[in-house]
Structure formats: structure tokens, C-alpha cells
Amino acid sequence: MDVSDLNRKEQDNKKMVFVFNPSNKDFKFKFDGKEYDVPSRDFKEFPLHIANHAKKHLVNYLINTRDIGIISPEQRAELLKEIEVNDE
């Protein structure tokens, strides 16, 4: 990893991203030993690296609570669209 990679990582950690929880239950997760939550059917803002972690686990949570079973990468991408918030 060179200096430009470190600078890019630092920039990413400063960027804030919203995550949406489409579930009817609050979603809780841990990152680096700290507990976070996204309220039911609500948005919450996190630094990019925490948001990426939350999205990964929130998709898994939705798969389990909706009793979907094994899904394809395309189906996982569709679930991810439910929770990603584009601020553009």
C-alpha cells in the first residue's frame, strides 16, 4: 500500500453514507467492537466503511428474515438496492 492508497482510504472514511432499513424491526450490528443500529423503516448516516459493513450484514439479515434461502448475485444486488441511498 502506498501513500495514495492511504490518502484514498482516509478520504473514504470521512465520506458519510445513508443506509435504509426496509425491515419492520430495528437492525443492530457491531463494527470494531461498537454497536450500531438502523431503526425500522428509517435512514441512518454512517462513515463509508461502516455503511459498507452495515449494508453487507443488512442484506444477510433480510435474506434470513424473509426466508429467501440461497440467492444469486443478481438477487443479492436487488436487495442491496433496497437499502442503498443515492445522494446524487
Mean pLDDT: 88
Q: How many DSSP-defined strands?
A: 4
Compute the gyration radius: what is it? 14 Å
Shape: globular
**Strand fraction:** 25-35%
Structure description:
- This protein has 88 residues and is of the alpha+beta class.
- It has a two-stranded antiparallel sheet with strand order 1-4. The protein has a two-stranded antiparallel ribbon with strand order 2-3.
- It has helices at residues 3-14, 48-65, 73-83; strands at 16-21, 27-31, 34-38, 42-47.
- The model has no long low-confidence stretch (mean pLDDT 88).
- Helix 2 (48-65) crosses helix 3.
- The chain contains three helices and four strands; from the N terminus they run αββββαα.
- The protein starts with a helix and ends in a 5-residue tail after the last helix.
- The chain is globular and about 45 Å long.
- A hairpin with a 2-residue loop joins strand 2 (27-31) and strand 3.
Supply database-style keywords.
alpha+beta, two-stranded antiparallel ribbon, globular, two-stranded antiparallel sheet, 88 residues, 3 helices
Task: Describe what is shown at a glance.
The chain is of the alpha+beta class and 88 residues long.
Helix/strand layout:
Elements: H1 3-14, E1 16-21, E2 27-31, E3 34-38, E4 42-47, H2 48-65, H3 73-83
Antiparallel strand pairs: 1-4, 2-3
Helix pairs in contact: 2-3
